[in-house]
Design brief:
Two copies of one chain form a homodimer. By secondary structure, chain A is mainly α. Chain A has eleven helices and one strand, in the order βααααααααααα. Chains A and B meet through β1, α1, α7, α8 and α9 of A and β1, α1, α7, α8 and α9 of B. The structure holds a DNA duplex (30 and 30 nucleotides).
Chain lengths: 275, 275
DNA sequence: CCTAAATATCGTACACCGTATAGAGTGACG
DNA sequence: CGTCACTCTATACGGTGTACGATATTTAGG
């Protein structure tokens, strides 16, 4: 399977698209479409069929026009994707207990001075949920050059979750980046596992059953004793080669623990300058 | 810019390629090529020009044959990439102080019972270095279905770094996944920043100078006070919109701190079963 | 009202991709 | 030698993003 991966378009054009006011033209035939409509349609297509299913012709068909018509509204596919990325960051999703029990009874945590932890956890789960809703986000390069209004608003929301903890501004930025990076890496595993299941038509369990004999045959448990031991135990426990959702829950707590260590240090010695 | 992203090929065919003994054919003309040579060439092309520059025709040209000749050795492009992935995990790179000072003087750390930390840090830096050497790895789906000999050996090496810490097998697997996921997310930021620089021809500093006025104009510091404050401070400190390499160094220490919390807990109460 | 400018849309075309298919050339074995 | 297995090539198909030119539509200016 080959999926498309698209980076960033011309930053100047994208920024104009993202920030510019599209004033309606004064002359010529009335536009049948709008950038918004095109972007919404493109997001629907990408959500349903992945980035590989997103083509200019496909979006145009969906809208009842030819592919070239889209180029009246959008400089190119890369810039279209840039706007798509900014658009899906517009919603403020409520996680509402997405995976396991939501922390409704964690009021005591706030009393410990760790209320920030709930906020960071919510941030992470929001990102997690967005990636699950729009898996194609994993394939697009959200590099800095394109910073739309919704991404900017999200950046602000994220930062408020680490404000007032005694961290420097740099540290606040770094903590937010840490969470983003981890969630990105973790969610990627889940989505790839899901895609693999969909593609091969076999669940993780079936895969395990199919390839376990081959692996055992080729494995050489003497050479790789640790992998052998851990692999068999975790394979039995997961009922699959891996359990990425569980890995996310586990890893998230460890990352938050690591941040807590930093926060405690800063609370104890507010002005120690070691980044 | 549009880059290719390739997932996994047919697992059965890939596994055969990865594990099977390719016995030389008994009849017919002598093969000019070999899977190894094709894979090596493909890796060189991908390293130099990215996954978007990797095409069957391109590799074939490099080898002086037609594109279709490759299909004698390899079932398809996806399976070729699967073998490429396994191949680049063959080396055991020595980080040798890749970013900052290597921990040569950290013998005292071992006395603290935190020698594992050095091992995990080395693991993370090895992965980090591999991604920098083969950035196209970020675009390929290394989902479980394809598990080659070198990946398996690496899995074993990784696990030994968390062996003997009192963790359960599941926890060992989860800790390794955590490190992998974080490194993946962090290195992605660096590579995307580098690609953005290369593509736009402007450094992060130049980007900052170009778009700072536009952002200030559109920003509304009253609506987003936190982002405004942090953005300006970090922008000034980085001299760029972000500093992903620094983010990696910072985040890695936080992640290791989080793992340390877990290890300490397990050392204190060896048999508490809460995963 | 009429014309001319501006705009939207369409049809065609190009270079590229992965690869299916068919055929031509090569070399070892019966 | 003939046959059969095998490698390699040539051609072709349907897909991609998008450059280019023609056509249709709307409105501003005379």
């Amino acid at each position: 399977m080959t999926t498309e991966y698209s980076g960033t378009g011309d930053p100047k054009r994208s920024m104009e698209l993202l920030w510019g006011t599209q004033d309606p033209p004064r002359r010529g035939p009335k536009p049948k479409l709008s950038v918004q409509r095109i972007v919404r349609t493109a997001i629907e297509v990408a959500d349903a069929e992945g980035l590989s299913g997103l083509s200019m012709r496909r979006v145009a068909d969906e809208l009842g026009v030819t592919a070239m018509s889209l180029y009246t509204y959008v400089p190119g596919k890369a810039e279209l994707i840039d706007v798509m990325v900014d658009t899906v960051h517009a919603d403020h999703p409520r996680p509402a207990g997405d995976q396991n029990g939501d922390g409704d009874g964690d009021a005591d945590a706030d009393a410990d001075g760790t209320g920030w932890r709930t906020g960071l956890e919510r941030l992470a789960r929001e990102n997690w949920a967005r990636y699950l809703r729009h898996p194609w986000l994993l394939q697009v390069a959200t590099s800095l050059p394109v910073l739309g209004p919704h991404l900017l608003a999200k950046y602000d929301r994220d930062l408020t979750a680490v404000d007032g903890l005694g961290l420097t501004e740099i540290e606040m930025d770094l903590v937010v980046s840490l969470l983003h990076d981890y969630v990105y890496g973790a969610v990627r595993s889940v989505i790839e596992a899901a895609r693999a299941e969909q593609r091969t038509g076999m669940t993780g369990e079936q895969w395990w059953e199919t390839y376990a004999p081959l692996l055992e045959q080729v494995f050489d448990a003497d050479r790789y004793p640790t992998a052998s031991r851990v692999g068999s135990v975790s394979g039995a426990e997961y009922g699959a080669p891996s359990d990425p959702a569980r890995a996310f829950e586990f890893g998230l707590q460890r990352v938050l623990d690591g941040i807590e260590t930093l926060v405690r240090t800063r609370a104890a010695e507010p002005l120690a300058g070691q980044t």
